[in-house]
UniProtKB/TrEMBL annotation, chain A:
Coiled coil: none annotated. InterPro entries: MetI-like, MetI-like_sf. Belongs to the binding-protein-dependent transport system permease family. GO terms for biological process: transmembrane transport. This is Putrescine transport system permease protein PotH. It comes from the Bacteria. GO terms for cellular component: plasma membrane. It is a multi-pass membrane protein. Gene3D superfamilies: MetI-like (1.10.3720.10). It comes from Bradyrhizobium ivorense.
TrEMBL record, chain B:
The keyword Signal does not apply. One of its GO terms (biological process) is quaternary ammonium group transport. It comes from Bradyrhizobium ivorense. GO terms for molecular function: ABC-type ferric iron transporter activity; ATP binding; ATP hydrolysis activity. Belongs to the ABC transporter superfamily. The gene is sugC_4. This is Trehalose import ATP-binding protein SugC. It is an enzyme of class 3 (hydrolase). Involved in beta-(1-->2)glucan export. Transmembrane domains (TMD) form a pore in the inner membrane and the ATP-binding domain (NBD) is responsible for energy generation. Keywords: ATP-binding, Cell membrane, Hydrolase, Ion transport, Iron, Iron transport, Membrane, Nucleotide-binding, Transport. PROSITE patterns: ABC_TRANSPORTER_1, ABC_TRANSPORTER_2. Residues 5-214 form the ABC transporter domain. One of its GO terms (cellular component) is membrane. Gene3D superfamilies: P-loop containing nucleotide triphosphate hydrolases (3.40.50.300). Its EC number is 3.6.3.-.
Length: 590, 214
């Protein structure tokens, strides 16, 4: 009958109070200093960058600081190009979100509430797009949907149809956004549906409502908070994506905020100030949406009184269940099978020009040329090596830091843990690209510093993914009952000893999983790498973009495949590793 | 308006294990309250859900005022909404995104009833359960006992021919349960509806039932 709040105090209670208090103070100060270095300092530098008109490389930081004025920022706001990019961003993300909500909601209903055959398979298929790196997805859809040489148009021509598609357009962007970010909506709505008391729907049916009318008057209104927060999340993610709009928007010069920011830094001379200002606009929009989402999530949720565990309730669709099954297959075909086939064809074909369908199956047209040529380039191996190195550094340091932060926030009552919590969740509102620009501003003008090393990439990734890692880790040790720790204290172990002998071993599957997640996220990250790499620290995702911008579709597709296979192997291996650990854990505890 | 319920040789077999109901027969004469009494897990609720049409029985027959609504042998399975019955759930199942009035008027919106007539019927039902002053409150602002009254009003507002009650008092605290139990009997008798009532509480069965089946 003790609340967790009573128990937390015991952590700070000790034999020698004075010494302990000083140690605690030092610990909190150290964490805050690290967070300030990782998060606060770059963001402040970004703000300063937006407010000056000097170049950090040429003029140095001190001169920049003396030129502060709001004029630069206002000029950016008044710039019609910025306005156009902002408008495009809102249209693309808005349209994409609408499609994502429709798909996500439909699939969660199919999976949770109907007797569609092979539901488990459809459930797995509907979260697959989460694993596709946006740039690879963009490249695949460029191969499929380019107006002249696209595979889809080739097929249409072969079938004698006059239909043509053009994915190098706002429509293409909206479509690809929509189908790839539907899983975010799906994850929220399917769990809300699963947790809903089915008698709420049964009551509607008994009242005389049809299944369809029940869906719109009872089911959807009840899970509205989940729908809205899934919607906002997918919008937020789309806002920060660089890969997809970079590929699909470039041919027609269709800019969104992310691609526009990168363009600004690539002009000569690079417009770092303007880029910083536009990055701030992007950050403010994202921050506002994150705030809205938190409000929706913490707002009233419709919990209901329930006498017993919910019985799974599924609507008998009759023969229609084959239609819902077919729709599931079509979705899988569109998001996974078609893009993969497109990448494979483009990677192995000598020339991308396909005269007719017969030539598509002509084996003489296929070879390993593109793979040979990418591996002839020394940069390719270098970029793979760099990406793995950055990934490892990020996973190990980021994981350890997140563990320290998570434990301090959730399991101790040290003063200052609120600020630690706040600062470590701050990056949620900062898109990857903005982290990149902020780190650029923070370190480019500091002589002999981090800029140009592998470490600046790793530090930027650690900061960027901190909120996700802390969250993932926290759930893993919040499941360990406090009494297990208390038992160790009673046995005479100190706090560090308890963490080492009790908490860490029990939480190890979760810790390992969080580190793996961090590793994978770091390897596929493109947005922040764009601003921080040099020729020595080139990473895979940036090199892929390079190949694409070089105009060679074959090489791009080949390298996309290499990257996808590598990621697949890593994710699979990590899953296998953490499963082994979990089993070992079960064996140990009982 | 009020009807007899006839259940003969009802069987329900879930995917695995022994049948949940194995050859149950009983009848509820028009205007009476019959209580199904028994320990939890003995199939009372499943029987009730079969009568409601929420579960599909695997054998036997159910008819309401002479019309067969469930008969797997003859391939008859009438949808819940076409059976003209009302149901009160153990978890109340009042819709938290609506006010009291919106909850109660919901069934009338799915029937051909004019707006003024519907409003009159809602007022009548709310008065009957003693909530006439709470019409515009959101249901989440109510206590458990009040929510159960909303559920009762909602199930009776359209005067169904049969009322089904699935342990309606089991989520309430002891004192409230006693009061609502007596009120429930008065309300049911006032409307003269046929009712099938499921409970595991003997005292409830004795007070409420005209007859009781164990």
């Amino acid at each position: 009958m003790h609340g967790p709040a009573d128990r937390r105090s015991e952590v700070t209670r000790g034999a020698s109070d004075g010494a302990r208090r000083m140690l605690t103070g030092l610990w909190v100060a150290a964490l805050l200093a690290i967070l300030a270095f990782l998060v606060v300092y770059p963001v402040i530098m970004l703000l300063l960058g937006a407010l000056t008109d000097t170049n950090p490389v040429v003029d140095g930081i001190s001169r920049s600081l003396s030129h502060l004025s709001i004029a630069n920022f206002l000029a950016v706001l008044a710039n019609p190009n910025v306005g156009e990019a902002l408008l495009n961003t809102l249209i693309a993300c808005g349209g994409g979100t609408a499609i994502a909500v429709a798909i996500g909601l439909f699939f969660s209903w199919i999976v949770v509430r109907t007797n569609t055959p092979f539901k488990g398979f459809i459930a797995a298929a509907s979260i697959l797009p989460l694993f596709a790196p946006p740039l690879v997805a963009g490249v695949a859809w460029a191969i499929l949907g380019s107006p002249k040489t696209g595979l889809i148009n080739t097929m249409f021509k072969w079938m004698g149809s006059d239909l043509r598609v053009d994915f190098y357009s706002m429509w293409g962007l909206v479509f690809v956004f929509g189908i790839y970010y539907a899983p975010y909506v799906y994850m929220f709505t399917s769990s809300a549906l699963r947790n809903m008391d089915p008698s709420l729907e049964e009551a509607a049916e008994i009242s005389g409502a049809s299944a369809f009318s029940t869906l719109f008057t009872v089911t959807f209104p009840l899970i509205m908070p989940a729908i809205i927060s899934g919607m906002l999340l997918s919008f937020i993610v789309m806002l920060g994506i660089y890969g997809i709009p970079a590929v699909l928007g470039a041919p027609t010069n269709l800019n969104v905020l992310t691609t526009y920011i990168f363009k600004l830094t690539n002009w000569s001379p690079p417009l770092y100030n303007t880029a910083a200002a536009v990055a701030i606009i992007l950050m403010v929009v994202t921050g506002f949406l994150v705030y809205l989402q938190q409000r929706v999530l913490s707002g009233r949720s419709y919990t209901t009184v329930a006498g017993k565990a919910f019985r799974p309730r599924s609507l008998d669709l009759g023969p229609w269940r084959w239609l819902t099954f077919a729709i599931g297959i079509v979705y899988l075909l569109i998001v996974v099978v078609l893009p993969s086939l497109a990448l494979i064809v483009a990677a192995f074909r000598k020339f991308m020009f396909i005269r007719d369908v017969a030539s598509l199956f002509d084996m003489r047209q296929y070879s390993l040329t593109h793979f040979e040529s990418i591996f002839d380039n020394p940069l390719t191996m270098r970029s793979i090596y760099n990406a793995v190195e950055v990934g490892l550094i990020t996973a190990i340091i980021g994981g350890a830091l997140a563990f320290a932060i998570g434990y301090t926030i959730h399991r101790t009552r040290v003063p200052g843990r609120r600020s630690i919590d706040l600062i470590s969740t701050l990056p949620v509102a900062i898109p990857g690209l903005v982290v990149g620009v902020a780190y650029l501003w923070a370190w480019i003008g500091v002589p002999g510093g981090l800029y140009g090393t592998i470490w600046i990439l790793a530090l930027a990734f650690i900061a960027r993914f901190m909120p996700d890692t802390v969250k993932a880790l926290s759930t893993s040790f919040l499941q360990i009952h406090r009494e297990l720790e208390e038992a160790a204290w009673v046995c005479g172990k100190g706090m560090l000893g308890t963490i080492r002998t009790i908490v860490l071993p029990l939480a190890s599957p979760g810790v390992l999983a969080a580190m793996t997640l961090l590793f994978v996220l770091a390897i596929r990250e493109l947005g922040s790498s764009l601003f921080l790499y040099t020729s020595n620290t080139m990473v895979m995702s940036v090199l892929l973009l390079d190949y694409y911008e070089g105009g060679n579709i074959g090489k791009t597709a080949a390298f996309s495949l290499v990257q996808t296979v590598l990621l697949g192997v890593l994710i699979g291996g990590a899953n296998w590793l953490s499963r082994g650990a979990a089993q070992g854990n079960v064996a140990r505890t009982g | 308006m009020t009807a007899t319920l006839e259940v003969t040789e009802l069987r329900k077999q879930f995917a695995v294990g022994r049948p949940a109901i194995d050859g149950v027969s009983f009848s509820v004469p028009a205007g009476e309250i019959v209580v199904l009494l028994g320990p939890s897990g003995c199939g009372k609720t499943t029987t009730l859900r079969c009568v409601a049409g929420l579960e599909h029985p695997t054998g036997g027959e159910i008819s309401i005022s002479g019309r067969v609504v469930s008969s797997p042998a003859r391939g008859v399975q009438v949808a819940p909404r076409s059976r003209d019955l009302g149901m009160v759930f153990q978890s109340y199942a009042v819709w938290p995104h609506m006010t009291v009035r919106q909850n109660v008027i919901y069934p009338l919106k799915h029937r051909k009833i004019s707006r003024t007539e519907a409003n009159r019927m809602v007022e009548e039902a709310l008065t009957l359960v003693g909530l006439s002053e709470y019409g515009d409150r959101p249901v989440v602002a109510l206590s458990g006992g009040q929510m159960q009254r909303v559920a009762l009003a909602r199930s009776m507002v359209y005067r169904p021919q049969l009322l089904l009650l699935d342990e309606p008092l089991s989520n309430l605290d002891a004192k409230l349960r006693l009061r609502l139990r007596d009120d429930l009997r008065v309300i049911l008798k006032q409307t003269g509806m046929t009712a099938l009532y499921v409970t595991h509480d003997q005292a409830e069965a004795v007070v409420l039932g005209d007859r009781s089946r164990q």
